Amino acid sequence: MLLGNLLKKKGSIILYAPLQGRWLALEKVKDAAFSQGMLGKGIAIVPSQGVVVAPCQGLVTVLPETGHAVGLQHPSGAEILIHVGLDTVKLAGQGFEPQVRPGDIVETGQVLLRFDLTALQAAGYDTTTPVVVCNADSIGTLDIIPHDRLNHSDQIIRIRQ
Fold it and tell me: Is pLDDT at 124 greater than 50 in this prediction?
């Protein structure tokens, strides 16, 4: 599929859980940039496993060398950020294994990165992982779909354009 064609699609967007774990309202994240919506609207997940998968198809736009976060652009233009843990950038990549590179086109459910959940917890890091639509205000109306526990097949956000 050509990137040009991929980035022209419009319509309703479904985001699936990029991690397995416990659903958490974004407002409860212990980081003001996320809890106050400065980086976008969405949810957070307290992970039970160290595997992050693509919540939708798209283009990998952000993947810092530290591997602690990944950004995707959905074909509609929606920009999704998955930030594994809080302050985990301080680990300088230790415990993170990216499985993709910026510029890669990924499919829903494709593994984006792996991380050592046990090591992050042992080092005292909060592993709460925000999943936000950075350009939510300009892309459409977000419907948050609450859950107790999340699996990769669970819908977490519906964006109506």
Answer: yes
Active site residue 83: yes
CATH architecture for the domain at 3-160: Distorted Sandwich (2.70)
How far are the Cα atoms of 5, 95, 149 from residue 118, in angstroms, in the given order? 41, 9, 19
Q: For the segment 19-54, what is each residue's pLDDT rounded down to a tens digit?
A: 999 999 999 999 999 999 999 999 999 999 999 999
The tokens for 102 are: 């910026």
Taking the domains of the chain in order of start, what are their residue ranges? 3-160
Catalytic residue among 68, 74, 83, 152: 83
Instruction: Note the pTM of the prediction, 2 decimals.
Output: 0.93
